[in-house]
Amino acid sequence: MEAARVVHPIAPVFDKDSRVLILGSFPSVKSREAGFFYGHPQNRYWKVLAEVFGEELPKTIPEKKEFLLRNHVAAWDVIQSCEIVGSSDASIKNVVANDLRVILDAAEIRQIFVNGKTAEKMFLKYTQPGLGRDCVCLPSTSPANAAWSVEKLVQAWRAVRDAVR
Questions:
Q1: How does pLDDT run across 20-44, given as a tens digit for each residue?
Q2: 111 and which of 58, 66, 161, 163 could share a cystine (Cβ 3.0–4.6 Å)?
């Protein structure tokens, strides 16, 4: 499979009441096809956040957007465009970062979280220097992170709920 230049197709989710920002690295092929964040059925992002906030699992895109906004969570990715092979984070190169000021200027974001080590690496390299804000790295909800059970992820991701309150 060859690397292709891909532009991020999903708009950020936020409003003026968002208090935390969760960033992934770049949407997977499944997410790009679904037209929304964490569209792969095996990714545990939605299941973990639903547990963290004590809510039902949102299923549709409108439900997911409402869930995020109701819980004061903004969602986006670090990367605006890149060359990537399929969904392989390891293949990402020639990165152009998203301008997070779109969110940071509109909402009082108390904490920026990144979903996994790739998002952290990309944030620290491409975003943090110009932004001057730090991030907290949470363990990835990707199925590739098999060392972390849903229960362990929920414990770690409670930091999101705590930062909102």
A1: 999 999 999 999 999 999 998 899 9
A2: 163
Q: What CATH fold (topology level) applies to the domain 4-164?
A: Uracil-DNA Glycosylase, subunit E (3.40.470)
Q: Are 114 and 120 in contact (CB under 8 A)?
A: yes
Residue 107 corresponds to which amino acid?
A
Q: What is the pTM of this model?
A: 0.95
Distances (CA, A) of 55 to 26, 71, 127: 26, 10, 32
Q: Helices 45-53 and 61-70: crossing angle, nearest 10°?
A: 40
Give 135's contacts (C-beta < 8 A, 6+ positions apart): 23, 112, 113, 114, 120, 123, 124, 128
Give the integer Cα–Cα distance in Å for 98 and 77. Answer: 7
Q: Quote the DSSP letter at residue 124.
A: I
Angle (nearest 5°) at CA 68 between 62 and 71: 135
